[in-house]
Write a structure and sequence with these properties.
Length: 935
């Protein structure tokens, strides 16, 4: 029930927001073959010279019988092992051709396969990828040896995902899904069944459900629609229709009149949470605007809920550490509402009552006119922003609407037309509509509460207590929320301003560098792709490195609390009212070596953003109640983290690998007592009081003269100090020990061995050697994937990354990580170390290098096609800091074109010559957290 994001994709794809439109898109070829297979072919300008293929199966784990549990997902794996035309496996073929963006995902109700970014210039490769998709439809081989090899891989995937989140999810499933089949289908299945299911059961499932009438092929990219439609008809039309196919049924979840409850304990759970869920049938019989309106009502509902909770926090009245509310899609044909509350210690009943009172008030009185109008304005602005970007076309948009059309029969239209209808639906919603919508599903049935924690002796919220609170709140004399549409007065700033003393043209970037009268440097570039928006960032040297050791705890609090009490003379609620609907983003950051601000907004609101920048420098606001609450929350989270055994291991590793002094010592809970409210504001001033130490970048769709005016008025008014410019202090806490190896045994559920290897070399590597090391890491990843996963079936995946950094100090690293059974750890480590050692003497085959080079070139080309505000912000920041031209790829291209397997071997040999090894193994000592569930 989580994750409702405001994107055009969500409006179209979430099952509770169907669209009804006249079917039609310019150039689209759509149809259904005689065998029942559906297809969509759409030309898109989004990615010139590339095409992507998708196979959507209206088949998921919900169709499995108990003896087939996990086989929909198992079948998805087998699709990459061997097909009629690719008996050696699809994955090796694609990687050998430089195609790495392929995947498949099995869900409860559907399965999606994809092969993306295939170059259309290689017609043979494109046709071959279509053959792969066709083979997936009905020609997966399912050889017995392949099945047996994949059993181990999927068991390792099960093991890697066997974490506290999954255990809590599966443990609560019986009440969440009201003891239906949904509660017994976790997609991946059980280890016992994965080990033992007969081969023919998988083959039966494949032939039973993978059939044309449940399949959909989507082709989107730089293609001729008519040509590719003919290819689809010719190739996929050969698949025979299924005779007397089984019905593709849906699973219903029966209603429940009384409240269901569950308490779940898990030793790795980091917090204690109260989760209320309410299931609701998806609305039926709505017309086109009604369906869109339904989607927007959910968005408005979630936004106002968040605002009401935020006002409680901003007023320092909260009884909870965190709380959230959301209405969203649940499973097919159902929506759901959820409240998640993390209470302060021993305040469970009070926290639940406070949040439930907010819900009761909403149910009784709904939302105010002002609340609804404000959110409508914000959503309308988001639609306008999408409208400006819609001209570029979006492959994800096309794919999502075609999927929705196939799965739910929801028609589609061009994105620009869709946005017009969405705006119409949004603006017609009234507060009365919102309140009626809430009452349409917010009944007293289908309610559950799941309480989770980690301490057996803690007094959790009980079912009786929850019912008592709900009954008590129902009788409360609650007054409706009153919110006036009163915009606070603007900032009464009387600034003298400054001037631009020097302008330097940066012709290579079509940008300018301004030096202000107060010494601040400003880089400006107009970028049309900002589509009415611009970004502004500033930074200076210093950061944590120059802060005294005793002030570091206070610095952490300062960073967390920036703007949490508001700015200037405005508290946080008033400040939010001031910027409401302005689409302003602003945050402060302090890193090890820098500090600064980053923000963005529409060009129409530029003056307000510049004012906020000025006030962030000159008028920060910190208040004691917010500070005290922050310290209390931080202590609580620290105490819960210490209960997690893996966190304790990480602390031990840190002590082994780090030189400890007062700057990085683990003070335990005493660290939070060292946070000093009285020191916080002066510490802030020290970091943000000297304008000439800061470099600003203004990038986007903002007029040059307007940017210059605002820069002079606000940035030019910031004070500067005389004296030497502050510089960061390089601090390297790495220990010099050559080899550190430890095995930790941790009490945690499951048979699990977690391995992390880190090889380090602080020598100097040329640009070519650095690229060669990066490529070496990718080649090792592919090779170890083939050996440890595919041959040994010992892990779900091996993470390998080789990287070189030059700041703050030189270090080249090779990191290898994987999870497996405890008794396989030593053998897999031996294999990995042997492969690493082989790199010193043996050359990798050309066939392993060339696909990686192709992939790097392709990625570079894609980056060059997506040049916008973020790209130019990075270019100007890099130039301002290092005087380097990040747009000049000549040296990079020259290195890439000349790269050989000898270069890779030589770089690996140099790296391994003087390497430090960090070898960590964590093995579980098995416990069964399920023993405390469902009591």
């Amino acid at each position: 029930m989580r994750g409702l994001l405001f994107t055009i994709t969500i409006f179209l794809f979430t099952a509770f927001t169907p669209l009804v439109a006249q079917e039609g898109m310019e150039g689209l070829r759509y149809g259904k073959l005689e065998n029942g297979l559906t297809y969509y072919v759409k030309h898109s300008k989004a990615e010139p010279g590339r095409v992507s293929f998708y196979l959507l199966q209206n088949v998921g784990s919900i169709l499995e019988e108990d003896h087939e549990n996990g086989l929909a997902h198992f079948l998805e794996h087998m699709a990459f092992n061997g097909t009629t035309h690719f008996p050696g496996g699809v994955m090796p073929y694609l990687r050998g051709k430089g195609i790495f963006t392929f995947n498949a995902r099995t869900g409860i109700n559907q399965t999606v396969y994809n092969i993306e970014d295939v170059p259309t210039a290689d017609g043979g490769l494109v046709d071959t990828c279509m053959f792969i998709v066709k083979d997936w439809c009905n020609e997966i081989l399912l050889k017995e040896k392949d099945i047996d090899d994949e059993r181990g891989v999927i068991i390792e995937e099960w093991r890697s995902h066997y974490n506290v989140g999954r255990r809590l999810q599966e443990g609560s499933a019986p009440v969440v899904y009201n003891h239906t089949k949904y509660a017994r289908r976790n997609v991946i299945g059980t280890v016992e069944l994965l080990k033992s299911f007969p081969y023919d059961v998988l083959r039966e499932f494949y032939h039973k459900w993978y059939r044309p009438d449940l399949q959909c092929v989507i082709i989107v990219g730089d293609v001729d629609e008519a040509e590719y439609e003919n290819k689809v008809k010719e190739m996929f039309g050969q698949i025979p229709a299924r005779v007397n196919p089984l019905e593709r049924y849906e699973v219903e979840i029966p209603d429940r009149a009384d409240l269901d409850y569950m308490l779940i304990l898990d030793p790795e759970n980091r917090s204690k949470m109260i989760s209320f869920h309410q299931r609701a049938h998806r609305a039926e019989g709505l017309d086109e605007l009604g369906r869109k309106s339904y989607s927007f009502k959910a968005r408005i509902f979630n936004a106002i809920w968040g605002q009401r909770l935020a006002r409680i926090v901003n007023d320092n009245r909260e009884k909870f550490l965190s709380a959230s509310a959301e209405f969203g899609s649940f499973v097919r044909n159902y929506n759901g509402f959820s409240l998640d509350i993390v209470p302060y210690k021993d305040k469970d009943v009070e926290a639940f009552e406070q949040v439930w009172t907010v819900w009761e008030e909403i149910r009784r009185f709904g939302f105010t006119d002002v609340e609804v109008e404000r959110v409508q304005e914000a959503l309308f602005q988001e639609l306008q922003k999408m409208e400006r970007a819609a001209e570029k076309e979006s492959n994800p948009y096309y794919v999502s609407v075609f999927q929705s059309h196939f799965l739910s029969g929801l028609p589609f239209r061009e994105q620009s037309e869709e946005l017009d209808v969405l705006k119409e639906a949004l603006l017609e919603i009234t507060p009365e509509d919102m309140n009626a919508w809430i009452h349409s599903w917010a009944t007293d049935s289908n309610q559950i509460i799941v309480v989770s924690g980690n301490d057996k002796d803690y007094k959790y919220l009980t079912k009786d207590q929850a019912l008592d609170v709900m009954a008590k709140v129902a009788k409360k004399d609650i007054q409706p929320e009153t919110i006036e549409r009163k915009i606070p007065e603007g900032f009464d700033l009387k600034l003298q301003g400054g001037t631009i003393k020097k302008v330097k043209k940066l012709d290579r970037f079509k940008a300018e560098e301004w030096t202000l009268s107060n010494g601040a440097r400003v880089f400006y570039k107009y970028v049309e792709e900002g589509n009415g928006f611009f970004s502004m960032a500033c930074s200076s040297h210093g950061g944590r490195s120059v802060v005294d050791a005793e002030d570091l705890p206070t610095l952490a609090a300062m960073q967390a609390l920036a703007m949490k009490s508001g700015l200037y003379k405005y508290d946080l609620n008033t400040l939010k009212d001031l910027v409401q609907g302005k689409q302003i983003r602003l945050n402060m950051m302090v890193s090890d070596y820098t500090e600064g601000f980053a923000g963005s907004t529409k060009a129409d609101n530029a003056e307000l953003l510049f004012q906020l920048y000025y006030l962030m420098f000159e008028e920060p606001r910190f208040e004691r109640p917010q500070f005290d609450k922050y310290v209390e929350r931080a202590k609580y989270m620290y105490e819960n983290r210490r209960q997690n055994p893996q966190e304790v291991v990480q602390d031990s590793i840190r002590k082994l690998t780090t030189r400890i002094d007062d700057r990085n010592r683990d003070w335990g809970a005493a660290y939070f007592d060292k946070m000093n409210f009285e020191r916080m504001k002066s510490l802030y001033r020290e970091r943000f009081s000297n304008a000439k130490e800061f470099t600003f970048c203004i990038v986007g769709d903002i007029d040059r003269d307007e940017a210059a005016r605002l820069t002079c008025e606000y940035i030019g008014s910031l004070p500067s100090r005389k004296g030497k410019k502050e510089e960061y202090i390089i601090r390297n806490y790495d220990v010099d020990t050559d080899t550190i190896a430890r095995e930790f045994k941790v009490v945690m559920p499951g048979d699990k061995g977690m391995v992390n290897l880190m090889l380090e070399n602080d020598g100097k590597f040329s640009d070519k050697e650095q690229m060669a090391l990066t490529i070496w890491g990718q080649m090792l990843r592919n090779r170890l994937f083939a050996i440890v996963r595919e041959q040994e079936s010992a892990t779900y995946g091996v993470n390998v990354d080789a990287n070189c950094m030059t700041f703050p100090y030189r270090k080249a690293t090779l990191m290898v990580g994987f999870e497996t059974q405890r008794d396989k750890v030593e053998r897999m480590k031996e294999i990995i170390y042997n492969e690493i050692e082989r790199s010193k003497d043996e050359l990798f085959p050309e066939s392993e290098l060339s696909p990686i080079l192709i992939s790097i070139r392709r990625m570079r080309d894609q980056q060059n096609e997506n040049i916008g505000v973020d790209y130019w912000m990075n270019v100007l920041s890099t130039y301002a800091e290092n005087k380097e031209d990040a747009t000049d790829h000549k040296a990079f291209d020259k290195i890439l074109e000349s790269m050989t397997v000898e270069d890779v071997r030589n770089a690996a040999r140099k790296f391994l010559k003087n390497v430090k090894v960090r070898d960590w193994v964590i093995k579980s000592e098995e416990v069964n957290p399920l023993s405390d569930w469902e009591k």
